[in-house]
Amino acid sequence: MKKIISSSQNDRKVKLKFNDMLDIVKNQRMFSLFFPFAMLLLIIALFSILTKGSFCTAGVMKSIFNQSMIIGTLAIGMTFIFTTGDVDFSAGNVMGLAAAVGALVYQNGQNIVTTICVTIVMGILLMLCNYTLSVVLHIRSAMVAIIGLTLYASITQQIVGAGTLRIDYNLCRNLESGAFRYISFMLFFGLCLLVYYWTPIGRQLRFIGGNVECARQAGINITKARCIGFLLAGLGIGLAGVYQIIRTGSVSSSVGNGMGMDVMLATVLGGMSIFGGAKSNAYSGFTGALTICALNQGLLMVGVPSTVIQGVRGVIFLLLVVLNSERAATLPSRQQF
């Protein structure tokens, strides 16, 4: 009798499918913490082997870190938008326009302090334009991003023209080699961590990303919370524009093109879903930026053409978005309530 009962119980055991097992692994609390660092270490180890140790030299590591500061600053700021479930991939073109205006101001006044201030203010003002279209006028964030890609790129083209706007080379080199970038980045990163984890705004943004209707019924001022999120995103974009000017010493009409997708890829590679919600975090953008820059540098060092690199990044982004997508069987949708 016992054998019959045990055999019937074994027959009734549910066999987990691959998707179910994948969900179990993804939903582990430590998975999102360790996965980004594991990816970064794997890439470093792989290209170190392929380049026979050349990838791990101090010069290459410094170059990767310097490149990641621009994308990382963008991604940290855009976290406050992605957390709410909004998908905005116009950050690169916003940064390009802000940098172009800042460079134009420098050419007229030759004052780098004014240039830095104008670039940051322009980043904030442009993101407030996105906020007005997306939140106040209730246009879908993806449509706003498409409008921004075209509009901001066109304005940048008109400002810069066929040439480039140049800033004093020696001045840029001094700023790049000095402590300005590192101090400003740490201050911005610290501000974002403070707002995200130790103020009501961060909790409200994560709540909005989980379910906007529940957040509204809980008494959260959604308009105010999202406005602060766009302001911080604009601050990060403006600061990244300053880093772009300092790094290259010039601004061309193509600056920032395609960087919005790099920001989204960095966010996902850093362990955060671009669909927002309670599992969002403020540090994934910089971790993912390091991974992207290491991947780009490694592929270039092993001789992979730049066009192929774009395809590799596209495939990785697609796979990661699929892995981070909400599943209706296990998670509530933002439109269910």
Count every helix, treating DSSP H or I runs of 4 or more residues as helices: 15
CATH second-level architecture: Orthogonal Bundle
Strand order of the largest sheet: 1-2
Low-pLDDT runs of 5+ residues are: 327-337
Number of DSSP strand runs: 2
| CATH superfamily placement | ABC transporter involved in vitamin B12 uptake, BtuC
Protein architecture, described:
The N and C termini lie far apart (49 Å). This protein is mainly α. The radius of gyration is 22 Å and the shape is globular. It is built from 15 helices and two strands. A two-stranded antiparallel ribbon has the order 1-2. The protein has a single domain (51-324), classed as ABC transporter involved in vitamin B12 uptake, BtuC (Orthogonal Bundle). Helix 4 packs parallel to helix 9 (180-198). The protein has helices spanning 2-11, 18-26, 31-50, 58-82, 91-109, 112-136, 141-160, 169-177, 180-198, 200-210, 212-217, 222-248, 259-269, 284-301, 306-324, and strands at 164-166, 250-252.
